[in-house]
Amino acid sequence: MSAPELGKDLVGLEYLSAEQILLILDTAEPFKEVSERPIKKVPALRGKTIVNLFFEASTRTRISFEFAEKRLSADTVNVATSGSSVSKGETLVDTARNLEAMRIDMVVIRHPASGAADFLGQRIRSNVINAGDGRHEHPTQGLLDLLTLRDRFGRIAGLKVAICGDVLHSRVARSNIWGLLKLGAEVAICGPATLIPREFAELGVRIFPRIEEAIEWADALNVLRLQLERMSSGFIPSLREYNRVFGVTRERLAKAGREVVILHPGPMNRGVEIDSDVADGPASVILSQVTNGVAIRMAVLYLLAGGAPEWRTAPADDR
Amino acid sequence: MPSVTRLLDAPAMARSLERIAGEVVERCGGTKGMILVGIQRRGVELAARLAALIGKLGPAGEQRQIPLGQLDITLYRDDLSTVGPVPQVGVTSLPDELEGRTVVIVDDVLHTGRTIRAALDELADFGRPRRILLCVLVDRGGRELPIQADFVGLTVETSGDDRVDVAVSELDGRDSVELVRGGPL
User: Fold this and answer.
1) Does B91 touch chain A (CB under 8 A)?
2) pLDDT (tens digit, 9 = 90+) per residue, B11-57?
3) ipTM of the complex
4) What is the pTM for the complete model shown?
5) pLDDT tops 70 at residue B165
6) Which is the catalytic residue, given A62, A71, A110, A182?
7) Nearest Cα to A223, choosing from A278, A181, A178, A157?
8) Distance between CA A147 and CA A128 in Å, rounded?
9) Number of H-type helices and E-type strands within chain B
10) Cα A94 to Cα A116: distance, rounded to the nearest angstrom
11) What Å distances lie between residue B180 and A311, B97, B117, B164, B176, CA to CA?
């Protein structure tokens, strides 16, 4: 069976073909079952050494990657910025090269600078997986959102998905937009004008200035977190006003007259972008996203570990 | 030019499976506590057929519906880092706890024994059966590990360049076993 290969690194969904994205989603299916076994471990990556290099705070993504690595029997090391030589002024490439000198096989990197994962991938031999780089992409989050949507609806093509909130600062939004468009979904973005980049319209993304219109239109809402830590100032007047105008509430959803599935990449600001009774309601798939995250990351690790190193990624214009 | 020899046609394959079913019931002294586990892909179909046959032969008062599982051994292969593009992973599902049960592994062809080694490792991660038996439709020799089958449909001597093609009607539209000599692998 000759499947499409994934290449050396996973930098973003923008650089993958629809076929490659489907390969990852299909590979994740059998990995879901591994996490349900009495012994949640298979020997597929035994002997591989993986470094989780996190230059930004993360709970969910880091733990999810670590579970995925351990359930595939890889050996893992976590490096966080504080307490490492990074805080002594070492550059990213030097850090990675030093790790590579200790014979590692893969690096999972989260970094505040957009493009950091690609930059690193071009400079070291190990596989590099982007776990979020600045505002650029968070490909495994995009993939797990796709998997969760496919689980719920049985398909991606033709689905109407609205990404709501702080799209400007969101790497999750970018990965979702690329992935959804490549698999044939319709995509809309919705939020305050200061947080909605107009360039996305060129990709065929619809823009809704009002949350009510997005809810009316969509099969599913992916509600983004307001990334207060990335905002300098002046993007929104206040959190209270944001909730009043753009918050996803039960009352607003009820007006749609049908079920609108709710996704959120976490961590949630309850009472700001999403109300508690929506987050915990029957249409919410937020915890399925977390469960699927481990399966998606196992699939990506498995596929990259066997990929040919000289193979990089699909041409960027392949869409 | 590759030469193709038909080793089993549909009626011969049916007879082999019937005979194996009888041997399994006899060896196990009934069907009590038995689970059949097919190895992806064609072992799964063969296990389903054997389960139906064994169910009919089982003594009165013992289980007639033999629980069926399927095992994908891809993640337990010993050559994952060398096979090049990674093989696709299939479904693994076991119907029940394995503790104290008699597990009969079913596969289409036994060759090097490496698939069965992987299957034994994988089963061990699910539990501790009372015993594990191995049933194959074709034993083509060429073992690289000390593994032997308990029930064999057909034994045939082959060389490493030969290929044994098992077709099952559920997947391939026909039942047959063919030996292909001198063809491309």
Assistant:
1) yes
2) 999 999 999 999 999 999 999 999 999 999 999 999 999 999 999 99
3) 0.82
4) 0.89
5) yes
6) A110
7) A278
8) 22
9) 4, 8
10) 13
11) 34, 40, 25, 6, 13
